[in-house]
Design goal:
With 255 residues, the protein is of the alpha/beta class. The protein contains eleven helices and ten strands.
Length: 255
């Protein structure tokens, strides 16, 4: 099933698969967020499902927020308000992904950057190809990871790794991401599909009630802090009016 020409969704034998297909880099706009929201409706209503796989058929997993959309909003109070509404939608939908009762797995065969990595961080499981790049490079364009990246990466990998990725703009390859715990599995690109399929089959063989109960326990152990979420949203609101941000965003989309 196709949603808003942004992604495809299929479900069979306990496994649902979302394939993002917005050329060329699955840039996330309001329509893609809405499509994800619709998919999560379907997943929540199907008690036969055990796993949701999120993947891409483009040259990257996801390059993050649509910077052309951002460029139309930077520098004005009205644009800032629109961007804050979108950032709140990112948080709501990624929080919803994290709270789904089924196991969720991001299949990062190619680059996951900015909001694309934040999408993956909201999943339970991540597998990355060694050649993939994973990063939160928002500071290069005068912004910050505003969709949970500062919070989830710090919780997952600790403040040192989060500072390295966010404050230096360092993009990790998939192998390094695996070593640091950002991805639970890392594999050569030629072995990626088979490895992801093998993980999916293992999850399918587990008890659905046990998986759902275990997810509730895991979420209770690592809650996202409201103060951190508020700081991200406030930070984006402030930066949208910074001249430096406007200059950097416009320069980037011209490259």
């Amino acid at each position: 099933m196709n949603f808003n020409d942004r992604l495809d969704f299929v479900a069979a034998e306990g496994i649902a698969t979302v394939t993002m297909n917005r050329p060329p880099v699955n840039a996330i706009d309001d329509a893609l967020l809405a499509a994800l929201d619709q998919v999560f409706d379907r997943v929540e209503s199907d008690e036969s499902l055990k796993l949701l796989r999120i993947r891409s058929d483009q040259k990257v997993f996801c390059a993050g927020a649509d910077l052309r959309m951002v460029s139309t909003r930077v520098g004005t109070a009205e644009g800032r308000s629109e961007m804050v509404r979108t950032v709140r939608a990112f948080h709501r939908i990624f929080d919803r992904l994290a709270a789904l009762p089924v196991v969720t797995m991001a299949e990062i065969e190619a680059h996951a950057l900015g909001g694309g990595l934040e999408l993956a961080l909201a999943c339970d499981l991540r597998i990355a190809a060694h050649s993939a790049k994973l990063g939160l490079p928002e500071a290069r364009i005068g912004l910050l990871p505003g969709a949970g990246g500062t919070q989830r990466l710090t919780t997952l990998c600790g403040p040192g790794v989060a500072a390295r990725v966010i404050l230096s703009g360092d993009a990790l390859d998939g192998k390094e991401a695996g070593r640091l715990g950002l991805a639970q599995w890392a594999t050569e690109k030629g072995e990626f599909a088979a490895a992801a399929d093998a993980i999916a089959e293992r999850v399918r063989g587990l008890s659905a009630p046990a998986l759902r109960a275990a997810k509730r326990c895991l979420r209770a152990a690592t809650p996202v802090q409201p103060a951190g979420v508020a700081a991200e949203i406030d930070g984006i609101a402030h930066l949208m009016l910074e001249p430096d941000t406007k200059e950097r965003v416009l320069a980037f989309i011209k490259t």
